[in-house]
């Protein structure tokens, strides 16, 4: 057996790797597994560094992409807000034209304009005085007009009467302070208009007593007895309004409304309206005519003095309240402003303002 101090010697193996043979206590130690240790350590460190670089690149790429997307969204949002603002500006411009008392809905050259930046506005003016004021009819006990309207829509007499009674019962509750204040403001506006037209005394006699009123036409749908009417006439709301003095403008109302309010035959009402169209027989043209006096209206309707006195209080020669709907359009964006206003009042009196 070799001693512990036996001389250590080196031999070269067949594969050229140095072998350290240590003959100590009969154990031979092969150092081939240690020969490439520095190389492996270098490779491992190099791979870790590469992964770190790749991770950093991915992280930076994500940050840059996120920043670009954020800026893009911010720019898009700014552009959208800018276009919405411009669309509202255009709608306001159209509203300014539509608010001029002398401008009528037929003046399309003024009410439809195209701007240099590609924007445009279009305005539609319609009269609330071509519709039935539901609050006025109920407070003046003109149930006959409502019943006749419902029957014309195909509703039987009994449900028509129940509907009118249901509407009246709905308004039988106490009035709130806010509603009372609003009604007082509306009455002041009517008096102001009457003073300008020289009809102050007549208007004071026709002012409605304060009481609960429908605050919107759509509120009528809350009345249970009114359901049969809505089923028979889906567009029933187009016949009613809550604005104005409750009078029908004979120079703007259609033949059906004229016949309903005055009681004349459909043929008489149709002839009455065709007179307004002028010699060419076409509405909204330059040769259109208007009724200037109530005597002309009575003669056009073919009614006697006694007959006309019963309905004269329901008729007017001009519109008390108009609806102005102005829409601004640019690059696919649009904004609409709808106002209910008395265009003849000075200053102009807005009863309602809605934007959508």
Structure description:
The chain is an alpha+beta fold and 356 residues long. It has two domains: 9-35, no CATH class; 124-355, no CATH class. The protein is 47% helix and 15% strand. It has 13 helices and eleven strands. It has helices spanning 32-35, 37-98, 108-111, 134-139, 143-152, 157-170, 177-197, 200-206, 227-232, 255-262, 266-276, 294-301, 305-309, and strands at 9-12, 18-21, 112-114, 120-127, 132-133, 240-241, 248-249, 315-316, 322-330, 333-342, 349-355. The strands form four sheets. Strands 3-4-9-10-11 form a five-stranded antiparallel sheet. A two-stranded antiparallel sheet has the order 1-2. A hairpin with a 6-residue loop joins strand 10 and strand 11 (349-355). Helix 10 packs across helix 11. The termini are far apart. Mean pLDDT is 82; it is low at 1-31 and 200-208.
Instruction: Kindly state the number of beta strands.
Output: 11
Q: Helical proportion?
A: 40-55%
Physical arrangement of strands within the biggest beta sheet: 3-4-9-10-11
Overall mean pLDDT score? Answer: 82
Structural class, from helix and strand content? alpha+beta
Number of helices: 13
The low-confidence parts are: 1-31, 200-208
Number of domains: 2
Distance between the termini: 107 Å
User: What can be said about the biggest beta sheet?
Assistant: 5 strands, antiparallel
Gross morphology = elongated
Radius of gyration: 43 Å
């Amino acid at each position: 057996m070799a001693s512990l101090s036996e001389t250590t010697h080196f031999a070269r193996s067949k594969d050229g790797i140095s072998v350290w043979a240590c003959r100590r206590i009969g154990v031979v130690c092969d150092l081939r597994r240690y020969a490439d240790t520095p190389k492996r350590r270098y490779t491992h460190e190099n791979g870790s560094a590469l992964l770190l670089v790749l991770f950093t690149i991915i992280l930076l790429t994500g940050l840059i992409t996120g920043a670009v997307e954020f800026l893009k969204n911010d720019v898009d949002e700014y552009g959208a807000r800018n276009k919405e603002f411009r669309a509202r500006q255009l709608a306001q411009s159209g509203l300014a034209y539509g608010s001029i008392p002398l401008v009528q809905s037929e003046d399309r050259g003024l009410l439809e304009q195209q701007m240099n930046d590609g924007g445009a506005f279009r305005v539609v003016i319609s009269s609330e005085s071509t519709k039935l004021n539901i609050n006025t009819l109920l407070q003046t006990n003109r149930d006959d007009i409502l019943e006749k309207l419902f029957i014309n829509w195909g509703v039987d007499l009994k449900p028509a009467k129940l509907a009118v009674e249901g509407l009246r019962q709905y308004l039988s509750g106490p009035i709130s302070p806010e509603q009372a204040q609003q009604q007082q403001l509306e009455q002041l506006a009517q008096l102001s208009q009457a003073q300008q037209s020289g009809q102050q005394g007549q208007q004071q006699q026709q002012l409605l007593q304060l009481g609960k009123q429908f605050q919107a036409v759509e509120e009528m749908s809350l009345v249970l007895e009114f359901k049969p009417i809505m089923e028979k006439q889906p567009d029933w709301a187009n016949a009613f309004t809550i604005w104005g003095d409750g009078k029908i403008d004979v120079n703007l109302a259609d033949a059906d409304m004229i016949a309903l309010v005055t009681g004349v035959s459909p043929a008489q009402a149709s002839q009455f309206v065709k007179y307004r169209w002028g010699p060419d027989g076409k509405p909204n043209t330059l040769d259109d005519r208007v009724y200037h006096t109530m005597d002309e209206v009575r003669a056009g309707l073919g009614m006697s003095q006694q007959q006309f006195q019963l309905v004269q209080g329901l008729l007017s020669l001009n519109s008390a309240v108009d609806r102005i709907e102005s829409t601004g359009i640019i690059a696919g964006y649009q904004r609409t402003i709808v106002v209910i206003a008395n265009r003849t009042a000075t200053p102009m009196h807005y009863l309602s303002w809605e934007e959508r």
